[in-house]
Amino acid sequence: MIPLRVLLVEDVIEDAALLQRELERAGYSVALERVETAGAMSTALCSGAWDVVLSDYKLQAFGAPEALRLCQQAGLDVPFIVVSGAIGEDSAVDIMKAGAHDYVMKSRLTRLAAAIARELGEAAVRRERRSAEERIRRSSVSLAETVGRAMEPRDPYTAGHQRRVAELSRLVGRKLGCSVAEQEGLYVGGLLHDIGKMAIPESILTKPGRLTPEEWGLVKEHVIVGCDVLRKADLPWPVAEMALRHHERLDGSGYPDGLKGDSLGFESRLLAVCNVVEAMSSHRPYRPASSLASVWEEMRTGRGRLYDARVVEVLEDIIRNDEFGLMP
Description:
Elements: E1 2-9, H1 13-25, E2 28-35, H2 38-47, E3 52-55, H3 64-73, E4 80-84, H4 89-98, E5 102-105, H5 112-151, H6 156-175, H7 180-192, H8 202-205, H9 213-220, H10 222-231, H11 239-245, H12 266-280, H13 292-302, H14 309-320
Parallel strand pairs: 1-2, 1-3, 3-4, 4-5
Helix pairs in contact: 2-3, 5-6, 5-7, 6-7, 6-12, 7-11, 7-12, 10-11, 11-12
């Protein structure tokens, strides 16, 4: 017998018993919990692990559409199959579009076991795909950290800057409600946003005085070089775009292309502000670290004009609460 944990949305006890007998006849060892209200289902979703959710389409005060939404809100990725005595074609189409995996008429319960077996197989494929994507993300993060460490002997200022921008970008992303995967992308983008500086002579990177116009022109090329390198890496985040755009400004005064406003992606806008804040608050060979007051003034003056207002607001809270240790 194959173990099967079933959450059943059903208000007719006799139908529940009939369904369980059909599954047992098909070779399943069924552990079944029956619910018939939204509250009972929410409790069951929180307290149990389920292999499949079976739901009548319409109960007295509940039904499959509401049950499906509860499953989705709980992040439950298991087969959701409607088992109904009567369901119109339009209703069947609507529930499938909403995310149900199949529907079976109670008059044809012999179809149910096959439908469950098929959908359990599909769910296993989805889980394996997500697992593979997670392994790729973890490997990409590890590789980005390795690249950052490899840059340290050549330019310790840039390497330390990239790590701190990466950590600050991830923190800002978390406070803005970004998903874990999006936060990882911000972190990797921060780690790699200055990778193009590997093409700049060390004498320019570590020069203690002001750069000449020609030297400054070479430095500005790092965004294009970095974008070219990262575009070929096929990472699961827009890190090439972040490398290219982290010196752009909302009013079009940045480089390399002078883009404005919404033409800059969210990740690039976030990284740009974190890059400025970290750079201003850190020592460089050609200047000391800026004061807290100077960083605050830059953020206030540029908010909504140069820098994304939401990102600035979050960063101001981080600075005010000393959550990142930006200032000595």
